[in-house]
Amino acid sequence: MAWLVRYDANNRPVPELATAVPSRANGGISADGRSITYHLRHDARWSDGVPFDAEDVRFSVNVVRDAANNEVTHVGFDLIDRVDVPDKYTVVFRLKRPHAGFYVNFFGSAFAQPCILPRHVLAGEKTINQATYNALPVGIGPFKYAAWRRADAVEMVADPLYFGRKPKLRRIVFKIVPSRDTVLTQLTTHEVDLWLPVPAAYYDRVRNVPGIRVVRQSSYGYNHLDFNTEHGALHDPVVRRALRLATDRATIVAKIRHGVGVLQESVVPPAHPFHADLQRVPYDLAAANRLLDGDGWRRGPDGIRAKNGERLAFDFAIGTGLPDTDELVELVRASWAQIGVTFEVRKYPSPLFFAPGNTGIIYAGKYDVTHYAWILGPNMDLTNLFACAAVPPHGANIPRYCDRAVDRALERFDATYDEAAQRDALHFVQERLARDVPTIVTDAREDVFAYNDDLHGFRPNHVTAFDDLVDADI
Fold first, then answer.
1. Pair 353, 273 in one domain
2. Of 134, 159, 190, which residue sits at a domain end?
3. Per-residue pLDDT tens for 345-400?
4. Final residue belonging to a domain, choices 134, 160, 178
5. Based on the domain organization, do 154 and 293 belong to the same domain?
6. Range of 56's domain?
7. Cα(429)–Cα(193) distance, rounded to whole angstroms?
8. In this model, does residue 89 exceed pLDDT 60?
9. DSSP β-bridge partners for residue 51
């Protein structure tokens, strides 16, 4: 895909399909902050040769705003009053109020944002969910689809129609390999040229593979345990605080993540200027037991605590084929048992685990506790993850957390273009999340990339490493 805006090596927005990133200085943001104007390139074509224009952008906005379409996020799109197209190469977003995250949410390349769709292919579809387009999409980026073999591989080739810098790589195959041990073997034999990101449990091993280079750097992601706050005992914040006290995160980072990662309480990584350096909560089983005792949770004959007929017995959902996650779960099981908590582990293949709508596990809320990672956008807007209105299917608020004070702070964050005011609002959100514990941050991620030393020019940023393959060659 190509985007209105991508992100450079310093995680700052740069234009791609747009000719400039809108700002007040260049007239792209109106004085009242409610009109955002994008001027588009005249030379962009879809991979099937059809010219790209402003109507593709307007059509894509309508797709996202249609509730019948499966979209991971709708953040910002509810603020659009209308989209004007004064000419083929100008798009004006008319907003109900200022929206500081426009450059991320309106077709920017940050993780999990909606992409611009080809109107000429999809305009006749009732929804995009079952469109034949999904089997082999028509894109507009530096590479185009050659084949999509389900559960096997996605093959892409350089698109000669791409308007930007021509890729030096002629072909990329994204291999779908369920076993990480198999990936390591294929990296060792150079059947795989690039593994990103490398799980921390494999960090020491990939560093010793001949002919393989390794990059380790701070990330905009975080690993975490999520609680379904709508389920039974997990609705009680005291229970969630006790579970955090009983989670030995230092050992998780040291032993399971092999020292790769940063211990912290905030969901905002330390690499970002909006990070709040919150006081660390220690691993303290005695304090966890005192909390539960004081909250009326009493141990039964089997040692499991209960209150008003509700037991501290949960379903713990994880993906399959993740040995480091398996180790983490067993470490957590042992420590939680010491405070009278138990759980059953449920394993799901990744496509089912992350499937949108009611068919998936985490988005449909078919879990009590779960573990995975999020990668945040460059502006650190947490609306899609923690706003009351972002509970699936309207967003990615997997814990189903709702705090109206947090909502108001998120609105303040997004309604100003002043970075100091944004920082203040986001600090409040980070503090409130640390207090209420809808999620336990096990660590701020450090990403590890391992690649064949024949691959040159690969320089990943904090937001998305895939962008950086455009400048790579082998």
1. yes
2. 134
3. 999 999 899 998 788 999 999 999 999 999 888 889 999 999 999 999 888 999 99
4. 134
5. no
6. 5-134
7. 40
8. yes
9. 45
pTM exceeding 0.85: no
